[in-house]
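Entry for the shared binder. Reason: the reviewer on the internal report wants the predicted structure included alongside the sequence.
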Amino acid sequence: MEILAYGVQADEKPLLEAAFAGRHEVRCLEVFLNADTAPLAAEHEIVSTSVNAQLDATTLRILAKGGTRMIAQRSTGFNNIDLDVAGELGFTISRVSFYSPYAVAEFAWTLALAVNRRIVRAAGRTREFDFRLDGLMGLDVHGMTVGVIGTGKIGECFARIAHGFGTRLLGWDIAENPVCRDQLGMEYASLDRLLAESDVVSLHVPLLADTHHLIDETALGRMKPSAILINSSRGGLVDSRALVEALRAGRLRGVGLDVYEEETGLFFFDKSLEGVTDDTLARLMTFPQVLVTSHQAYFTSTAVGQIIATTVANVDDYLAGRRSENTLVPKS
C-alpha cells in the first residue's frame, strides 16, 4: 500500500521513509493538505498530515470522494480537524497523543532566555564587529516568579527547568499536577493572580474554545510591564492584535512566539522574496523585544522520531481494526 504524507519537512522525509520501509510505500509531499491539495490523495486509502493541514468539511469530503478512509495526523493538536464531519464520512482519524515533552519545554526556555538577554540583537551586532553592550542588559532568572499556564507533561518539564534556575513557581490548570505541586513547590493560583505576579508567563495548554485568546487585552493588562510572555503551544491562545497594542504602549520586557494564530500558509514556507502581507505579524516583528520562530519547538530528532513511530503504529492499528488512545474518530 502507498501512503501519501503531506507537509513533510526535508529533515523529516528520510526518517518517515525509513520507518515505513518494508511495510508500506510512503510518498512524501512538501505541500500541506487543504481543499486545493486534497485531490492529490485520490486512490490513497491512508494519508498522513502535519499540524498545519486544513481538515475542514470541504477537504474531508474531497478526500472521502477520492477513496481516503484513514488520516494519520503527525501532531498532538487536532483543532484543525472537523471531527464531526469526519465521523459522518466514516473516517478513522488518529493523532500522536504524546512525544518528547522536553523538546517543547527546552525551546520555550530558549525563547525566554534569548529575549531576556537580547541574544538576537547581540549576535547581529557582533557579526558586524560591534561589541558594545548598550541595550543588552538582562535580568537574573534566579529569584523570578514563573507562571506556567498548563501543567501537563510539557508544562511540568518547563517547571522542572524553572525550578533548576531557582525560581518561584505559580501554576494554573483545570487540575493540579502533584509533581509540580509536591516536588517542585508550585503554588496553584487563579489566572488573574498568576498574570499579575509572574515575571515569565509560558503557555502550555491546548487550543480549545475555552482557551482561544486566553491572553487577550484584559490578560495582557494584568501582566507586569516588565514581564516576558512565551507561547510555544498554539497561536490562537494569544490575541495577536491585543499583543501589538500592549507592545505599542510600552508593556512587556520580551515576547517569544513559536506559534502564531494566522501561521497557516506562512510558517514552513520561504516568504523572503514575496514578502508577508499579514500586517499584525509584520508589526509584531518590528519590536526589538519580540522573537518569532517558525513552529519549531517540537523539531528535535528525538521528538520527530517518536512522532513518526507513533504514526506507524496508528496505521498498523487501523489496518488491524484496533483503536488506541490516539484514535480520535470513530469516537467509540
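Summary line for the report: Residues 315 and 321 are 10 Å apart (CA to CA).
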